[in-house]
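[Structure tokenization] protein backbone as discrete codes
[Encoding] learned vocabulary of local backbone shapes
[Protein] chain in single-letter code, fold in tokens
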Amino acid sequence: MYKELVLALIVSVDTYLAAAALCNSSIRIPLRSAVLINAMSAAVLGISIKFSALLGAVMPAALFHKLGVALLTAIGLLTVLKSLIRNITRKLSENGGISLKTGKGSLVVRLYLDDTAADIDNSKLLSAPEAFALALASSLDSAATGLGSGSSGIEPLTVTAAAFLCGCAALFLGSFTGRRISSLQRDLSWIGGILLIVFALVI
């Protein structure tokens, strides 16, 4: 059970930081949107772990485990790199070098750089379609994480439930501490990347 809970907490780090960023921009997350975000992310994580476990049934155990560790480590490193890119982009934006609020280009790219881009219509309210877009972007990481975790013996249904509950708690906490976290003027998503690398090395 502890592995499922640890993994659920790790994948909830980005959810917490996204909620904090939205709160800092005075963007409200209605209950329906919150449920949609967490349900989609948790379901994708559980399904990808189940699919990974099925793949493991037809692969040598040692090779499957090494591939899982390598994939989780790669995702962790990419998360750290994403955080670095976001910090650099924020610095350039503050210096007038670029603008994150152009309203143009791929929504996926904009969400990659700035979670508040999810509020497409600038209504300060995250509608269900906007929540779906944000959930879709975050679910890509959940899917990759799930595929890399299949060799760890994690139970899909248990981790799905844990991820949903931890995600709800992360959104709730992020909505209340957003301004304090955002006042640090740093992207902290690298924390989730480091935790994922540690998880990969100890499972």
Remarks:
- The helical segments are 2-24, 31-56, 61-94, 107-113, 128-149, 156-182, 190-202.
- The longest helix spans residues 61-94.
